[in-house]
Amino acid sequence: MTSIADIVAEHAHREGPLLPILHDVQKAFGYVSEDAMRDIAQALNLTRAEVYGVVSFYHDFRKEAEARPILKLCRAEACKARGVDALVPIAENQSRVKVEAVYCLGMCSVGPAALVGDQVIARLDATRLSSLLEAM
Amino acid sequence: MTVRISNDAVALACGADAVAAAFAAAGVEVERVSSWGMHWMEPLVDIDGVGYGQVSADQVPSILSGDAKSIGRIEDHPFIAKQNRLTFARAGKTRPTSLDDYYASGGWLGLGQARAIGADATIETIMASGLRGRGGAGFPAGIKWRTVADAPAEQKYIVCNADEGDSGTFADRMVMEGDPFMLIEGMAIAGFAVGASKAYIYIRSEYPHAIAKMEAAIRLSAHLIAPFVVEVRVGAGAYICGEETSLLNSLEGKRGEVRAKPPLPALEGLFGKPTVVNNVLTLAAVPWILAHGGEAYAAYGMGRSKGTMPVQLAGNVKHGGLFEVAFGITLGELVNDIGGGTASGRPVRCVQVGGPLGAYIPPAQFDLPFDYEAFAAADALIGHAGITVFDDSVDMAQMARFAMEFCAIESCGKCTPCRLGSTRGVETIDQIIAGKNVDANLALLADLAETMKFGSLCAMGGFTPYPVMSAIKLFPEDFNR
């Protein structure tokens, strides 16, 4: 298992290493815990408040673990123009998958679109979204 | 027989991998290339230049037997034939991370030319091209480069802003996924011109394919641009980090809060050093300009808007995709002639140009030419040249509310008009939608919009009033009037 210290050591030589460290911590552990923030702060000679301030600023970083699989559904203008708002009830009427809003996946010509891990899915309709959620 | 299928995220999201696998299973070798940009056709199969649109795996046998209907030669398709492809010259034709393909299609000629003529003449070439920042503000790239070049410092930086967060835009993503070496070459030329040894490219986390392709391309080309070094940094889901000073703070490992200007990043940018911050499309245009000359680029376009713009047709549009064209084309030509109107077949009600901060424009104004000055005069914004089309089923009060809501979600919180104004804006529009004191609340909203427009530190709060107020002005009937 990777430790926080390993991750910090890997990036410590870089200019402005905090974001790369936080990305890797979240990748390894699924979230950035208070303990992790304290360790990172100490290693980078920052205050805990500074690290907390960065973690809480960015939508990507989680302060708590999420056990469910995550689907990010684009809710921005171009996907709205293609009918994503009509799909939202399908996402809300289930609880097995955590559905989060994301603002633009660059699929604006083929939306509605979603991101699962590193996989992008476009041309969603009610049927496709339902089967996607069931398969997760 | 050469079968080409794109591995751009749009093609993958529409099922290109399954189609490629079906060809492979039939014993046919498949080249995975960049996307032509005809997104409504994806997955598009290109067999020796002839195209087959919206292909699914079960259609592969009929394509191989010659029974399937083709769209003819892709290059002759009106959507492609009408373009002026300079930045997207390789789109659909080359394998994105193949150095051989890049060399064979004129790659590295721009960097070679820059090294041959020297740093000063390189900046002069960019000046002569009239290239303006493609990220939205339209600031002349040559002047920015000159400022950084003239700033005395041991360390300078190139920062490529690849935090393309505007809905309706995907040209940056297509450059990074389809032609990453061109962007690296553009950064290397900029570094050579201004005397910077290091570049950061800040890519949004919502673009995992772009991140992977850029990292691969940087590894493969490191020896060609040395001693210049390019490093990828990944954003963390904050729209505001597309604003250049916020992006610099994020790169430094801080909250992505906007900085007050001055000092300009060109003089005190990343870690306080002179920094060129250019958008992906700006830097991607540079290799062509160096290889062909500034005058050749300036021969395209109109007025002070020189060269070409990769326009992105998005939203409820029949023929969505990437359309690179010289400035001067009208909005109506783009939406109706090229885009084919709406995908739903209903009438176009309006378009939003330039992302979430751009004004809504109705068909009555479709004679507006694509030109920075013409758009500014119409209180509109070219921005990153994304055009999001809406049909007549759109509720503009909800879109105005969303503009404020988006600003509230994404505001960095540094200045009050943006941080508080956006939340008060949502509340006020909710009152209007509910029919409460409509006239008084509309007046209040107009006042709030003025405060945000003139009191905000950056374009986030400063431009959010444009979509809101244009929606009210154009479609009062949606606001209980």
The CATH superfamily of the largest domain in chain A appears as Glutaredoxin
Q: How many structural domains does the protein architecture of chain A include?
A: 2
Give the helix level of chain B as a range of percent. 40-55%
Record the strand order, biggest sheet of chain A: 2-1-3-4
Oligomeric state as shown = heterodimer
- Secondary-structure element string of chain A: HHHHEHHEEEH
CATH architecture of the largest domain in chain A: 3-Layer(aba) Sandwich
What class, by secondary structure content of chain B?
A: alpha/beta
Return the CATH topology of the largest domain in chain B: Rossmann fold
Q: How many beta-strand elements of chain A?
A: 4
Biggest interface reads:
A-B, 43 and 64 residues
The residue ranges of chain A in which pLDDT falls below 50 over 5 or more consecutive positions are none
Protein name (chain A): Formate dehydrogenase subunit gamma
Family (chain A): Belongs to the complex I 24 kDa subunit family.
InterPro entries (chain A): NADP_DH_HndA-like, NuoE_N, Thioredoxin-like_sf
Catalytic activity (chain A): a quinone + NADH + 5 H(+)(in) = a quinol + NAD(+) + 4 H(+)(out)
Q: Can you describe what's shown?
A:
The complex is a heterodimer of chains A (136) and B (481). With 136 residues, chain A is an alpha+beta fold. Chain A folds into two domains: 4-57, no CATH class; 70-135, Glutaredoxin. Chain A has seven helices and four strands; from the N terminus they run ααααβααβββα. Chain A has helices at 4-11, 18-29, 34-44, 48-57, 77-81, 88-92, 126-135, and strands at residues 70-74, 98-102, 114-116, 119-121. In chain A, strands 2-1-3-4 form a four-stranded mixed β-sheet, with no helix packed on it. In chain A, helix 1 packs antiparallel against helix 2 and helix 3 (34-44) packs across helix 4. Chain A is elongated and about 50 Å long. In chain A, 38% of the residues are buried. Chain B folds into four domains: 3-81, 3-Layer(aba) Sandwich (Glutaredoxin), CATH 3.40.30.10; 99-298, NADH-ubiquinone oxidoreductase 51kDa subunit (Rossmann fold), CATH 3.40.50; 301-391, Roll (Ubiquitin-like (UB roll)), CATH 3.10.20; 396-479, NADH-ubiquinone oxidoreductase 51kDa subunit, iron-sulphur binding domain (de novo design (two linked rop proteins)), CATH 1.20.1440.230. Chain B contains 21 helices and 16 strands. Chain B has helices spanning 9-13, 16-25, 60-64, 78-81, 99-104, 109-117, 119-129, 141-150, 171-178, 180-194, 208-225, 244-251, 280-292, 294-298, 331-338, 372-377, 396-410, 416-433, 438-455, 459-463, 465-474, and strands at 3-6, 30-33, 45-47, 50-52, 72-73, 157-162, 198-203, 229-234, 275-279, 301-302, 305-306, 308-315, 321-326, 348-353, 360-361, 386-391. In chain B, the strands form four sheets. A five-stranded mixed β-sheet of chain B has the order 2-1-3-4-5, covered by helices on one side. Chain B starts with a strand and ends in a 7-residue tail after the last helix. At the A-B interface, helix 2, helix 4, helix 5 and strand 4 of A face helix 1, helix 11, strand 8, strand 12 and strand 16 of B. Chain B: Keywords: 4Fe-4S, Iron, Iron-sulfur, Metal-binding. Chain B: This is Formate dehydrogenase iron-sulfur subunit.
